[in-house]
C-alpha cells in the first residue's frame, strides 16, 4: 500500500494535474477523497491554460481517470483559455 503525505495547498492542487496526466488513479482518488481537491479547479493549472484535471487526463488518454473524475462531478464541457473542452 502506498503512503501519501499531505502537502501545501499549492503542491496538492498542482499534483492532481500531474496524476491525471500520468493516469495515476490511486493518487487522483487520494487527492479528491482525502485532500478534498476539487475536480473542476483550473486555478493552479501548471501551464496557466485554465485547464482542469479532466483536460489533463484526456491529453494522456487515461480512461480510468477520466471516468473517475466525471463520476466525481468533473464538467466535460469546461472550456480552457483556448476554448477547448476536455473531451
From TrEMBL:
Q: Which Pfam families match?
A: Ank_2
Q: Please report the residue spans annotated as repeat (ANK).
A: 49-81
Highest taxon of the lineage: Eukaryota
Q: Which PROSITE patterns match?
A: ANK_REP_REGION, ANK_REPEAT
InterPro entries in UniProt: Ankyrin_rpt (IPR002110), Ankyrin_rpt-contain_sf (IPR036770)
Specify whether Repeat is a keyword of the entry: yes
Q: What is this protein called?
A: Uncharacterized protein
Which Gene3D superfamilies does this chain map to? Ankyrin repeat-containing domain
Keyword Transmembrane set for record: no
What keywords sit in the KW lines? ANK repeat, Repeat
Amino acid at each position: 500500500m502506498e503512503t501519501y503525505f499531505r502537502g501545501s495547498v499549492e503542491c496538492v492542487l498542482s499534483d492532481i494535474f500531474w496524476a491525471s496526466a500520468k493516469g495515476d488513479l490511486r493518487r487522483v482518488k487520494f487527492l479528491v477523497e482525502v485532500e478534498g481537491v476539487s475536480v473542476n479547479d483550473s486555478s493552479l493549472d501548471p501551464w496557466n491554460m485554465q485547464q482542469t484535471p479532466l483536460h489533463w487526463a484526456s491529453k494522456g488518454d487515461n480512461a480510468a481517470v477520466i471516468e473517475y473524475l466525471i463520476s466525481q462531478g468533473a464538467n466535460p464541457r469546461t472550456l480552457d483559455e483556448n476554448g477547448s473542452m476536455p473531451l
